Amino acid sequence: MVRRSKVEVSVVSLPLEELEERVSASGAAAQDGDMPVLTDPDGQFARNYNRRNFLFRHELKDHPLFELPNLIALAKRPAHVEAYWSNGKVEPTDSWGTDRAPRLTLIDTIANIGDNNSLVILKQVAQDPVYGPVLQGFLASVVALSGEQMRQDVVVGETSILISSPNRLTPYHMDDDCNFLMQAVGNKTLFVYDHNDRSLVSHEEREQYHMGNANSIVYQESRKCEATAYELDAGYGVHIPVFAPHWVRNHDNISVALSVNYQLRPMLAEKRIYRVNSLLRKLGAAPTPPGFSPSRNRWKIAAANGLYAAYHLLRRKRARPLWTPRPESQGHGKRAGRSRDEVSRG
Predict the structure, then answer these.
(1) pTM of the prediction?
(2) Of 151, 246, 263, 304, which alpha carbon lies 20 to 30 A from 2's?
(3) Nearest CA to 242 among 44, 2, 49, 18?
(4) Under a CB-based contact definition with an 8 Å cutoff, are residues 111 and 70 in contact?
């Protein structure tokens, strides 16, 4: 039996001004495009973008932004950050959002992450005034390395920071965005499956996902051997294509990772087709999945666009600015004023 010693964490938050000064050497440079955030000597990004998973290197290891005290300070700035957190032990088979321990506050969860078997996700961090310059630099660099096809595909880019306890698992799931997961602190094992395998993710399961069921796919232990297992150390990252099932087993350390992800135009169109298909299925039809009939795809997208327009007229909310790629002639990216609702309308 292996006994894990308690991880001692000293939490001393830096004042905002001091943190800004500590990251100025890298963060301020990122604003001017001088920070060497990513390199790709083998051309993997352009060759494999949203086609297959691959390992790459980055320069976020031991960056002060990912120190625990500064992450706590970030979580206390809710004007710029949304959060998800889960407390207690989980298994790969568990549903996303499972809590098996008493619910802690967000700040308590992060402050005691070394001993409470939890997962925290701080979302839309690129809009934070301190973290933004560095993270927006990463958003732009990934698109620049991946080439013109990705530049045309990307609608918006977002970043999230994932903080997890020693030996914590992240359940088996899939996401509808294009993900570049970068390990900044600690190490873990990441299992990534083939996103094109319809025996792992059927059209019906994608449809359920687009209708709001984040747990539409089910982990199969018998197929664990089919995953690509990455021993992900700090300073390395993995590209996870859209809808590639994956799960994580953290090692005996606190883990901090940056998720750089993008909503893609083809996926937004697919989402609308699947939602129309769900409506048709409820009416007793057997709809054709996306990609099988261009003409049917077009009228489904047109129908969905009409429904979206009516919906957003009735449900207006305050816009949150998101990162969008600039045209090539204007540089690599900017902090944009479009909201998620505006993006969903195309």
Answers:
(1) 0.78
(2) 246
(3) 49
(4) no
